[in-house]
C-alpha cells in the first residue's frame, strides 16, 4: 500500500516536471528565434560599429542566446540529471521495501507450513502410539490363554476386549483418513505430497482397514451366551498378523510400522530443509 502511494506521488511529480520543462523549452525556442531574427535584422539594416546603439542591442541578443538560453538549457539538463538520480534512489528504496515485504511474507508462509507439518507429525504419532497400545492390550487381555506368535489355534478371543480395541483402531483409521485429506488439500506444504498419500499413507490406512473389515465379518459369529470365539480356520488372520512379533516381518509390520517410519522421515526432511 505504501509503495503504491509513493509510486503514484512520484508519477504526479514527474508529470508536473515534464510539463514544466516543455513550457520552458517552448519559451527558450521562441527567445532563440527572436534573438536570431533580431541579429539578422541588425546585421542587415543597421551598422554594428563600436559604441553604436545597434551594437549594444546585438551584444544583448548574443548574451540572451549565450547566457539566457544555453545557460538555462544547461541548468535544465543538470536538473534532469538530478531528477533521474532521485528517481533511481526512489526506485531502489521502493524495491528494498518490496523485497523486505516479500521476505516477511515468505517467512510467515514458511512458519505456517512448518507448523502444519508439525501438526501432521503430532497426529501421526498419536495414531502410531494408539495402534501400539491397542496391539499390546489385545495381546495381554483379548485371549483366554497367553498369546503365542506361532500358533494360537487353540485360543479363544474375548468379545468385550475385541470390541473395545477394534473401536479404538477404527477411530485411529478415521483419523488417518482426515490426515490424508489434509495433506491432499495442502499439497504445496509437501514437495512429495502425492507420493506420501499414494505410496506411504495408503498402505498404512489400508492395513487398518483390513483389520476393521475382518472385525465386521467376525463380529456376528460370536456366541451371545459365551462372548468368546475360537481362533481357527484363519478367521482372525489380519488380527494375528497385527499382533505377532515384528521380528517375523509380517504384512502388517511392513505396511504399517515400516511405512510409518518412512512417512515420519519424509516429514522431518521437509521440516529441516524449509527452516
| Structural class by sheet pairing and helices | mainly alpha
Total number of strands: 2
CATH class of the largest domain: Mainly Alpha
Q: Which architecture of the largest domain does the CATH hierarchy give at level 2?
A: Up-down Bundle
String of helices and strands: HHEHHEHH
The geometry reads as rod-shaped
Strand order of the largest sheet: 1-2
Uncertain segments of ≥5 residues (pLDDT<50)? Answer: none
Strand content: under 5%
Largest sheet: 2 strands, antiparallel
| Span between termini | 29 Å
Task: Summarize model confidence as the mean pLDDT.
Answer: 80
Number of helices: 6
CATH topology of the largest domain: Four Helix Bundle (Hemerythrin (Met), subunit A)
Number of self-contained structural domains = 2
Provide a descriptive summary of the structure in words.
The chain is mostly helical and 275 residues long. It folds into 2 domains: 2-106; 109-273, Four Helix Bundle (Hemerythrin (Met), subunit A) (Up-down Bundle). It has helices spanning 2-45, 53-141, 159-185, 193-218, 237-243, 251-273; strands at residues 156-158, 228-230. Strands 1-2 form a two-stranded antiparallel sheet. The protein starts with a helix and ends with a helix. The mean pLDDT is 80.
Task: Please give the structural blueprint.
Blueprint: H1 2-45, H2 53-141, E1 156-158, H3 159-185, H4 193-218, E2 228-230, H5 237-243, H6 251-273
Antiparallel strand pairs: 1-2
What would the keywords be for this entry?
single chain, Four Helix Bundle (Hemerythrin (Met), subunit A), mainly alpha, two-stranded antiparallel ribbon, 2% strand, rod-shaped, 2 domains
Amino acid at each position: 500500500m505504501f509503495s503504491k502511494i509513493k509510486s503514484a506521488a512520484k508519477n504526479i511529480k514527474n508529470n508536473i516536471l515534464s510539463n514544466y520543462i516543455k513550457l520552458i523549452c517552448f519559451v527558450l525556442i521562441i527567445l532563440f528565434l527572436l534573438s536570431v531574427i533580431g541579429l539578422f535584422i541588425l546585421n542587415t539594416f543597421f551598422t554594428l560599429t563600436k559604441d553604436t546603439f545597434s551594437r549594444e542591442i546585438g551584444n544583448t541578443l548574443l548574451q540572451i542566446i549565450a547566457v539566457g538560453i544555453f545557460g538555462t538549457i544547461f541548468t535544465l539538463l543538470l536538473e534532469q540529471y538530478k531528477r533521474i538520480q532521485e528517481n533511481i534512489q526512489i526506485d531502489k528504496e521502493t524495491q528494498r521495501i518490496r523485497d523486505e515485504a516479500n521476505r516477511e511474507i515468505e517467512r510467515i508462509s514458511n512458519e505456517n507450513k512448518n507448523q502444519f507439518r508439525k501438526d501432521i507429525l503430532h497426529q501421526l504419532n498419536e495414531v502410531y502410539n494408539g495402534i501400539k497400545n491397542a496391539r499390546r492390550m489385545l495381546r495381554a487381555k483379548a485371549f483366554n490363554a497367553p498369546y503365542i506368535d506361532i500358533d494360537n489355534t487353540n485360543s479363544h478371543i474375548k468379545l468385550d476386549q475385541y470390541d473395545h480395541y477394534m473401536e479404538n483402531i477404527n477411530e485411529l483409521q478415521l483419523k488417518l483418513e482426515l490426515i490424508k485429506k489434509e495433506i491432499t488439500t495442502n499439497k504445496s506444504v509437501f514437495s512429495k505430497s502425492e507420493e506420501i498419500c499414494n505410496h506411504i499413507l495408503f498402505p498404512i490406512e489400508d492395513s487398518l482397514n483390513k483389520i476393521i473389515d475382518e472385525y465386521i465379518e467376525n463380529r456376528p459369529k460370536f456366541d451371545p451366551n459365551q462372548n468368546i470365539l475360537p481362533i481357527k480356520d484363519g478367521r482372525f488372520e489380519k488380527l494375528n498378523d497385527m499382533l505377532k512379533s515384528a521380528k517375523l516381518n509380517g504384512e502388517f509390520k511392513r505396511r504399517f510400522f515400516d511405512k510409518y517410519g518412512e512417512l515420519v522421515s519424509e516429514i522431518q526432511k521437509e521440516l529441516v530443509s524449509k527452516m
